[in-house]
Amino acid sequence: MKMKVFGMLSLMTMLAAGTAMAQPWGHGGTGGPGGGLLNQLIYPCQSACFRQQRPCVQTAASVALTAINGTCSSEIAAAQKACQTGPLSKACRKDDSALKTCAQSDLQTFQSAVESCRSTILQPCLDACEQ
């Protein structure tokens, strides 16, 4: 069960990477623990933009996970079984790679959906913050 959760968390991390890279917190905000929280105070308009985009990205992630679950169920099961001994085992890495290959199309669709969220929701909002 732990490896199943680990696998899903890994996949969610990959799926969320597109939005994490869109955050403007490297522009003079505070870093380190709590930096994101403090940036909400420093950049309230931009923070609101990211909150506004979040449901779009969450929907895209949910759609992607559903698609991958349907398309790659045997690869998921194989990776879950192989990874029970640990994520660094040779068998786990092999089956993890097979799952990524199987999910490639759905991951690309997810990435496109995230980019759409960014261009239609996030960017216009951030542009409005600059005015």
What is the strand content?
under 5%
Major β-sheet, in short?
none
What is the mean predicted local confidence, pLDDT? 84
Q: Which outline best applies?
A: elongated
Helix content: over 70%
Radius of gyration, taken over Cα atoms and rounded to an integer in Å: 18 Å
Secondary-structure element order, as H and E?
HHHHH
| Helix/strand/pairing category | mainly alpha
Number of helical regions: 5
Amino- and carboxy-terminal Cα gap: 50 Å
Weakly predicted, low-confidence segments = 17-28
Provide a compact summary of the structure.
Helix content is 81%, strand content 0%. It has 131 residues and is mainly α.
Task: Tell me what you see in this structure.
The chain is mainly alpha-helical. The chain has one domain. Helices cover 81% and strands 0% of the residues. It has five helices and no strands. The protein has helices spanning 2-20, 35-42, 44-71, 73-82, 90-130. Helix 1 crosses helix 3 (44-71), helix 2 crosses helix 3 and helix 4 (73-82) packs across helix 5. The protein starts with a helix and ends with a helix.
Fold topology:
Elements: H1 2-20, H2 35-42, H3 44-71, H4 73-82, H5 90-130
Helix pairs in contact: 1-3, 2-3, 3-5, 4-5
Key terms for this structure?
5 helices, 131 residues, single chain, elongated, 81% helix, mainly alpha
